[in-house]
């Protein structure tokens, strides 16, 4: 990817050239940055960054980051940054658990309780909740939906990008949308969140701390703080942090409507008990 940038550089217009120079000079930092941060640091726009990425033969910025990471990092880092090829099993387990614990600790400090209170109020007020997630965030969205239903909140999870777009466009002002996105720059969830906001829904984003495109479309932001570079094939520690945010949100919602939540949990428990031998 860096070779492609060098080959294209002489023929790039000023703005694209400035972005290309920034990426080349700061390649090791760029794999940790969002498209918003690259745009700000290079004095350009998010659209200009994405346009350059497409000229390089990539679908978007994320694909460029992955390609640069492959040029720069050891292959084992695509599994987990802290791991080394000669780590024994005990070391692997210790490193994974320690990184998960660190993500939980950091997320607790990063979580804005005022934003959490606003999310609780928005969901309680809403006629229904739409939950969006793509890729590794899809399982978190499904879990959030399940937990919301268990405490009596009308909820639906959508993890298909086309259905997300349709669902978001059909939102109304009495709907709350909960979007899960670690990077905050996944095209599908960005589109769905934007469409939902334009339709008048209250939008809530669970995303990693830092500047990202989704902040432009989120009314309420619940930050995780997971130390991932986003060049792994799948998110790892971010899932733990996202689940903790969802747990805190569900607990706060249940306590806010305690009697209804308990009654619904009991009723759904009776139904689910018929599924067990």
TrEMBL record:
Ranges where the HTH rpiR-type domain occurs: 1-75
This protein's record includes keyword Transcription: yes
Keywords assigned by UniProt, alphabetized: DNA-binding, Transcription, Transcription regulation
GO biological process: carbohydrate derivative metabolic process
GO molecular function terms noted in the UniProt entry: carbohydrate derivative binding; DNA binding; DNA-binding transcription factor activity
UniProt keyword Oxidoreductase, yes or no: no
Pfam families listed in its UniProt record: HTH_6, SIS
Domain SIS: 119-259
InterPro entries noted in UniProt: Homeodomain-like_sf, HTH_RpiR, RpiR-like, RpiR-like_SIS, SIS_dom, SIS_dom_sf, WH-like_DNA-bd_sf
CDD domains assigned to the protein according to its UniProt record, in alphabetical order: SIS_RpiR
This protein's name: Transcriptional regulator
């Amino acid at each position: 990817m860096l070779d492609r940038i060098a080959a294209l550089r002489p023929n790039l217009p000023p703005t694209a050239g400035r972005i290309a120079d920034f990426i080349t000079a700061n390649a090791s930092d760029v794999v940790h940055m969002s498209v918003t941060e690259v745009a700000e640091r290079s004095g350009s726009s998010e659209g200009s960054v994405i346009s350059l990425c497409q000229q390089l033969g990539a679908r978007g910025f994320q694909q460029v980051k992955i390609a640069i990471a492959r040029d720069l990092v050891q292959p084992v880092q695509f599994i987990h940054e802290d791991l080394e090829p000669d780590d024994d099993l005990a070391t692997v387990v210790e490193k994974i658990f320690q990184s998960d614990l660190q993500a939980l600790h950091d997320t607790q400090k990063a979580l804005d309780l005022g934003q959490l209170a606003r999310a609780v109020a928005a969901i309680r007020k809403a006629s229904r909740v739409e939950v969006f997630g793509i890729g590794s965030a899809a399982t978190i969205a499904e879990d959030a939906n399940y937990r919301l239903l268990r405490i009596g909140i009308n909820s639906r999870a959508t993890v298909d990008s086309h259905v997300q777009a349709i669902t978001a466009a059909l939102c109304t002002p009495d709907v709350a949308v909960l979007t899960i996105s670690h990077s905050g720059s996944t095209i599908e969830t960005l589109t769905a969140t934007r469409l939902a906001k334009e339709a008048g829904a209250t939008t809530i984003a669970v995303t990693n701390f830092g500047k990202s495109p989704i902040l432009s479309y989120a009314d309420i932001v619940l930050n995780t703080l997971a130390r991932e570079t986003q060049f792994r094939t799948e998110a790892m520690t971010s899932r733990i942090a996202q689940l903790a945010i969802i747990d805190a949100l569900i607990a706060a919602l249940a306590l806010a409507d305690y009697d209804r939540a308990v009654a619904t949990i009991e009723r759904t428990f009776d139904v689910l008990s018929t599924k067990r031998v």
